[in-house]
Design a protein that fits this description.
Blueprint: H1 3-22, E1 26-30, E2 33-37, E3 47-50, H2 58-67, E4 75-79, H3 87-93, E5 98-108, E6 121-125, H4 129-142, H5 156-159, E7 164-171, E8 174-184, E9 187-195, H6 204-218, E10 223-227, H7 233-239, E11 242-252
Parallel strand pairs: 3-4, 9-10
Antiparallel strand pairs: 1-2, 2-3, 4-11, 5-10, 5-11, 6-7, 7-8, 8-9
């Protein structure tokens, strides 16, 4: 890995490990791959991140599949851009359900264009388990899940993870949007940006993203990074983010774990 990839991918690893351990899940490093498994039934919360070509060897893939053997939801292999070419080797050895594109965007501190939050919007850092539960419920609704979806993650271990901070935005006393930042190696990774549906289109998601970015810069980071969906990309571009590369996600169904060979 080189350049931006060498800075951004370790931030994903930091966050993935913290999220897994904080939610009572498991983390395991094998040769060339880091696996994170959580009790959250969400494909992006259960990943095998390939970090070296050794990660697609038969013996390693057998260990990875054993690690996820009891997983009841989809999980996925994630390949950073420098290792996308090993997709062909992976496809020979593992049955995958589908491919997903994971666009990465970055924002250097000197390029940031962060506007003030809309009038009446209050954003604060989560500091207690009660607030953390409110954060988790708002985030779940923002992503279209049931309100209790992230409840397994609401634990003191999650709230106290080094380098990770959670932010909640409220309007007229009602929680409306969430984000979190993961600070590592001078990078402020921004994750979990979500707005409750009835409050979208009012700049609340932009504001809570900007808050997480500012917090990261205040902690000494010179770069912010996030993965963007198609609907949110224009918002991030206006903030100064720019697209830099794609990670590739190869999704594995819990009922289709067997190797082709």
């Amino acid at each position: 890995m080189q350049g931006l990839e060498a800075r951004v991918i370790p931030n994903h690893l930091h966050f993935g490990k913290a999220f897994a351990l904080g939610s009572g899940g498991k983390v395991q490093d094998f040769a060339g791959v880091t696996c994170t498994r959580t009790p959250i039934p969400d494909v992006e919360s259960n990943t095998a991140l390939i970090t070296d070509r050794a990660g697609v060897q038969d013996d390693v893939l057998t260990k990875v599949k054993d690690f996820f053997r009891d997983q009841q939801s989809e999980w996925m292999f994630v390949l950073p851009p420098s290792l996308v070419d090993v997709s062909w080797e992976l496809a020979k050895r593992v049955v995958v359900a589908r491919w997903v594109r994971l666009p990465e965007m970055v924002l250097p501190r000197e390029s940031a264009s962060l506007s003030d939050p809309p009038s009446g919007l209050e954003i604060r850092k989560v500091s207690s388990l009660d607030e953390f539960l409110v954060w988790a419920r708002a985030n779940s609704m923002g992503f279209g899940s049931s309100p209790n979806f992230l409840d397994p993650f609401v634990r003191p271990e999650s709230l106290e993870m080094k380098g990770i901070s959670y932010y909640i935005a409220s309007f007229s006393g009602k929680p409306v949007a969430t984000s979190l930042s993961c600070v590592s190696n001078g990078v402020a990774g921004v994750y979990a940006v979500a707005t409750i549906p009835e409050f979208r289109g009012r700049g609340f998601g932009t504001a809570v993203t900007a808050f997480a970015v500012r917090e990261g810069f205040a902690k000494g980071c010179d770069l912010a990074a996030l993965q963007s969906g198609s609907m949110s990309t224009p918002v991030y571009l206006r903030m100064g983010f720019r697209y830099v590369f794609d990670c590739h996600g190869w999704v594995v169904s819990p009922t289709r774990r067997s190797s082709k060979t």
